[in-house]
Amino acid sequence: MDFKDYYEALGLKKGASQSDIKRAFRKLARKHHPDVNPGDLTAERRFKEANEAHEVLSDPEKRRKYDELGANWRQYEQAGAGGGSPFGGGSPFGGGFSGGGRGGTRTMTPEEAAEIFGGGSPFSDFFNTFFTGGAGSGATRGPVARPGRDIEHPITLTLEEIADGASRRLGLEGASGTQNVDVKIPAGVADGSRVRVAGRGESGTGGAPAGDLFLKVRQSPHQTFTRRGADLHVGVAVGVTVAVLGGSASVPRLRGKPLTLKIPAGTQSGQVFRLKGHGLPVPGDSSPIGDLYATVSVQIPRELTPPQREHFEALAAIEGDTPAE
Q: Is residue 75, in this structure, part of any structural domain at all?
């Protein structure tokens, strides 16, 4: 069993103040926390070392006894940890574990650490020998309550399903096999958004709650409409005479019969008209509805009937244009 230099673990000198200890621990915890470094065993080890050092040095009484031990470590090591301690008994500091320091700071409890690192003691043999009555690193505790992990599942929706809301039955793989889960997707969800289904993730252990299911929404392309937020965009073709003289055009919509759009005389190709309230709903709000935008495209006839040619030639003569031969 090696002596643990807790000051070195926090990057401090022996005379460091309580504020220095707290500051150093927070810095190391943020840097090496397993949630920030998943699968990084080096970061996990450094996080454990920092937490253990803070558990001792943030408690004035534990720190005093640790400082006394430091000067006598070699003597204890020679006597042997099995009962020949010069301090008497299995541990010079007595039993009992304090979940937090007395100096106004808070350290991770064994239960919290076990949630991250597993059911065994998260502390070193050195710590367990001197601060838990000699329990040792192999000591086990009761079942650890650990919340289940969240699950993300992709889901593809048509534009019509997004407009109306949708239901899905999903087959999710779990520890007990495939489980069917019925979920509802609210109307108006954005492409790329995540829909949370509470309690439908991985099961918890030790009575802890299950995680959540997050549905990652992907919108399938639509052959008629383009979506921009809650608004829909559609192209509308009109003839030359309607664009010049004015008239009306039929505008498709996502649900129901087409709308009739009034085309003013002199409408230019590319002009956009807004049809209010014919877009998509906004999630979580029952009143606002997006709009439908119709972009006019003036269609030039590729072939002319004899009467059409006669009229266009007459128009060209009026405007002083010379038709091509």
A: yes
pLDDT tens-digit profile of 222-244?
Answer: 999 999 999 999 999 999 999 99
Residue 174 CA from chain centroid, whole number: 21
Q: What is the pLDDT of residues 58-85, one digit of tens each?
A: 888 888 888 887 766 556 555 554 444 4
Among candidate residues 92, 107, 114, the one with its CA nearest the CA of residue 206: 114
Domain residues for 197?
Answer: 151-219
Q: What is the 3-state secondary structure (H, E, C) of the chain?
A: CCCCCHHHHCCCCCCCCHHHHHHHHHHHHHHHCCCCCCCCHHHHHHHHHHHHHHHHHCCHHHHHHHHHHHHHHHHHHHHCCCCCCCCCCCCCCCCCCCCCCCCCCCCCCHHHHHHHHCCECCCCHHHHHHHCCCCCCCCECCCCCECCCCEEEEEEECHHHHHHCEEEEEEEEECCEEEEEEEEECCCCCCCCEEEECCCCCCCECCCCCCCEEEEEEECCCCCCEEECCEEEEEEEEEHHHHHHCEEEEECCCCCCCEEEEECCCCCCCCEEEECCCCCEECCEEEEECCEEEEEEEECCCCCCHHHHHHHHHHHHHHCCCCCC
Q: For residue 247, give both structure tokens.
A: 């008239």
Domain count, the chain: 3
CB of 121 within 8 A of CB of 48? no
**Backbone conformation region of residue 296, classed left if phi is above 0, alpha if psi is from -120 to 50, else beta:** beta
Tell me, yes or no, whether 88 and 21 share the same domain.
yes
269 found inside a domain: yes
Same domain assignment for residues 172 and 242: no
